[in-house]
Amino acid sequence: MSMLVRRSLSSSLASPSSISISKAIAAATLQKRGLATVSDKPFTITTPPPAPYAHNVTTKPPKAALKLKSGEVFHGTSFGANIPVSGEIVFTTSLVGYPESMTDPSYRGQILVFTQPLIGNYGVPGLFKDQYGLLKYFESDRIQCEAIVVNDYATRYSHWTAVESLGEWCARHGVPAITGVDTRAIVHILRDQGSTLSKLVIGDDAVNENFNKIPYTDPNTRNLVSEVSTAVPVSYNPYGDIKIAVIDCGVKHNILRSLVKRGAAVTVLPWNFDFNRISDQFDGIFISNGPGNPVKAMETVQHLRKAINTYKRPMFGICMGNLLMGMAAGLDVRKLRFGNRAHNVPALNLLNGKCQITSQNHGYALVDDKFPPSWRKFYVNVNDGSNEGIIHKTLPYKSVQFHPEAKGGPEDTEFLFDEFIDRIRSEKVQREGTKFFVPETIDQQTTRVA
């Protein structure tokens, strides 16, 4: 007997009463779980339910206009702060993680274009901290980019961590935002001619295309690292078994989390602090990511150059840290045509031949045509052939241009933190030996009361 025949017979043998009981039980179960049930009765909503997460759509947003220094103008509407700004316009192809990207200090001074069409649909979370005192959902305590450009801003958001809309967040931080523009056209221009400067104006200036009130501002002429670095030393997880100094060139909170959650005691130092004076207090040194032109951070390069010759303990750099480490080793830097800002960039490990997908955000790269005798290439970008990392041939120094900590993006290269921490612990054991805790024993006979 076929399955179809068996199902037909079982259906015909079922009594009407058993069917109605089954329906009643199923309906009651669904109602308990808060799920929708099917009904033959028409159901209409006379007034929509309150939606505290909904943007006030009754207020007509002001016009906004974006002008590239190359002459192209794009019109849209504003959903952020109503102030004009200027900066370097760049694009990211990341699909998720706009709160993390916008708070990444590496975007300082830049107008950020999202190629993902729909932005803002899951709102913005609150400033919650984890057990280490680090922000859970942001990479710093403020929006770092100058403005954002999106194709379609979601006026209604929904997420269990959200406390406000993207537009409200931008307005509160004084960051302009424009929606309704052809971001694909902008990316084509930047891809073909390279990154350029741009202006964003709001209101009547946008309608009249009046861009003369503000000049074109090139953030790469400023020392952006000094703007985002800590001014005083800050400690996290002070009771960790190994001590790491983090040279703060604009460090992301998830980088710090990647170190402290592996048991390290971390001390964040200002970008221009001469850590060589106290380097013997640390088991390892980490050089962080950061914004802008690395040539503006030559003080850090000088300190690293001295450390390369004298420190001998593990050092690891990420993004800006790779550029500064390379400059300290004797390499030059160059500005990329439009940079690498994405969550899906393939990087080839030249030591083992493995290709890993990485998260990236940088506009400069090391010139690695000729290498100093003691150094070699570590990673290379599969897409454009640019440098993605360097490693010392004999000493425990290495750095990568991409972001192993992601946030957002793939975690394929997070193992680099494990290698860094394991190397630090291994060398500390070799220096100091293994320390054991021996509990104090008390002779019971001596403690008896006569």
From TrEMBL:
GO terms for molecular function: ATP binding; carbamoyl-phosphate synthase (glutamine-hydrolyzing) activity; transferase activity. This is Carbamoyl phosphate synthase arginine-specific small chain. InterPro entries: Anth_synth/Amidotransfase, CarbamoylP_synth_ssu, CarbamoylP_synth_ssu_N, CarbP_synth_ssu_N_sf, Class_I_gatase-like, CPSase_GATase1, GATASE. It is an enzyme of class 6 (ligase). Gene3D superfamilies: 3.40.50.880, Carbamoyl-phosphate synthase small subunit, N-terminal domain. Heterodimer composed of 2 chains; the small (or glutamine) chain promotes the hydrolysis of glutamine to ammonia, which is used by the large (or ammonia) chain to synthesize carbamoyl phosphate. PANTHER family: CARBAMOYL-PHOSPHATE SYNTHASE SMALL CHAIN, MULTIFUNCTIONAL TRYPTOPHAN BIOSYNTHESIS PROTEIN-RELATED. Residues 62-201 form the Carbamoyl-phosphate synthase small subunit N-terminal domain. It comes from Rhizophagus clarus. Its EC number is 6.3.5.5. Coiled coil: none annotated. It catalyses: hydrogencarbonate + L-glutamine + 2 ATP + H2O = carbamoyl phosphate + L-glutamate + 2 ADP + phosphate + 2 H(+); L-glutamine + H2O = L-glutamate + NH4(+). CDD domains: GATase1_CPSase (cd01744). PROSITE patterns: GATASE_TYPE_1. NCBIfam families: CPSaseIIsmall, PRK12838.1. Pathway: Amino-acid biosynthesis; L-arginine biosynthesis; carbamoyl phosphate from bicarbonate: step 1/1.
